[in-house]
Amino acid sequence: MRLPGWFAEHIQPTPAENALRVSTLELFFDLVFVFTITQLTTLLVDGFAGDAAAPAAGALRVLLVFGVIWWMYSGYAWLTNTVPPARPARRVLILLGMAGFLIMALAIPTAFDGGGIAFAFGYLIIVLVHAGLFLQATASFVRVLPFNLVGTALLFTAAFFDGTVAHLLWGAAVILLWVSPYFIGQKGFTLHPAHMVERHGLLVIVALGESVVAIGLGAHGSAGPAVLIAAVLGLALASCLWWAYFGGDDEVAAEHALMRAEVVSRTRLILGAYFYAHIPLLVGIVAIAAGVKTALSHPLDPFHLAPAVTMAAGVTLFMAGDALYRRVLAMPALRLRTMAAVAAPLTILLGLVSALAQLAALVALLGTVLVAERARQLSPRQ
Questions:
Q1: Which residues span the membrane (predicted)?
Q2: At 121, which helix (H) or strand (E)?
């Protein structure tokens, strides 16, 4: 499929052999996308204030919303990898896609309570813009479009229901989208490794920045000693996550791993490492941000069970996602990180004593793991 005339001339894909780096427009796009992450953190925190069932319901809704938006974010990352926004026509369409993400983000707090139509409408905009650009790059995308449209239809349908039926329809949309690569196949996508690695690295940085914003929101303007200590610990925890993901020049190793693979294998590696493995990484950041935000409100008070579990689960998810990411790309597995993922839930017991105590324990756990890894790397026996 090709659009005629001037428009088609301005949206031809970049040749696969050309080097490609992330543009400022893509970073701008990611800032809008991470606003949806902020909304998910708020949705999770709001669930802590409800009855006993509210935290579980809030966590389920976060997972469902994240499931559908992450699919289309990844679609746009693949899109700009093939059709970079270097010309006015492309940029206008990318900006229109950003508007769709903004509409979705604003609708997230009420997506299951009357705002489902607005969310689905924003999603439809994103799907149509994505299709319009991607069809110019590869005819293979024709196989993706029906899955995206059916997923959007499920979201529109869910808007007319509530409770279990709505959740089941959302779940069906997530499953349909996530399994679609196995029905579509991965042939026909010639992806630029450097761009894909850089794009997701920047996304993780922006998401970690959102977790730092949660520190300020959780403090509510207070500057007492306990709040300041908790704020510094929250920053230290985010810094440990940064170090785990970026601290060992892993982006270079990831890029080389992708460049060594032939085209079809490279596409599968990118799907495994940058779509599936980054799901627990990003959900983990959302959960940690929700926990830190709650801890800053009353750092010396005992955590309720829900935020204590959420913050520990966030660390477990992040470290497990990091381990999966490394495994897919055949990078060093770093077993200590897997041990940290297993050990993080033990800090829940400290959280039931004091939110500050659990936060300190998680920082100590990750800090010890990172220091031990560095010591092993510098050991003459290694």
A1: 27-45, 57-79, 91-111, 117-135, 142-161, 167-185, 201-220, 226-248, 269-292, 304-325, 346-372
A2: helix 116-134
Could you give the angle at the alpha carbon of 313 between the alpha carbons of 309 and 314, nearest 5°? Answer: 120
Roughly how many angstroms between the first and final C-alpha of the chain, as a whole number? 54
Residues with Cβ within 8 Å of residue 357, at least 6 apart in sequence = 350, 351
Tokens 């925190």 sit on residue: 45
Q: What percentage of the chain reaches a pLDDT higher than 70?
A: 88
Q: DSSP code of 275?
A: I
CA-to-CA separations, 368 to 13, 28, 343, in angstroms, rounded: 46, 35, 12
pLDDT in tens, 247-275: 877 888 899 899 888 888 888 899 999 99
Tell me the per-residue pLDDT of 315-330, one tens digit each, with 9 for 90 and over. 999 999 999 999 999 8
Q: Quick one: how far is CA 143 from the chain centroid?
A: 25
pLDDT, tens digit (0-9, with 9 covering 90-100), for 86-112: 888 889 989 999 999 999 999 999 999
For the segment 183-189, the average pLDDT, to the nearest whole number, is: 64
Question: Residue 288 corresponds to which tokens in the numbers above?
Answer: 């940690």
pTM of the model: 0.89
Could you tell me which residues come within 8 angstroms of residue 73 by beta carbon, excluding any fewer than 6 positions away?
33, 203
- Rounded distance, CA 382 to CA 380, Å? 5
Per-residue b/e over 149-180, b at no fewer than 16 CB within 10 Å? eebbebbbbbbeeeeeebbebbbbbbebbbeb
Cα gap 292→146, rounded to integer Å: 40
Residue 230, judged by CB atoms within 10 A of its CB (0-12, 13-18, 19+), counts as buried
**DSSP string for 7-66:** HHHTSPPPPTTS-----HHHHHHHHHHHHHHHHHHHHHHHHHTS-TTHHHHHHHHHHHHH
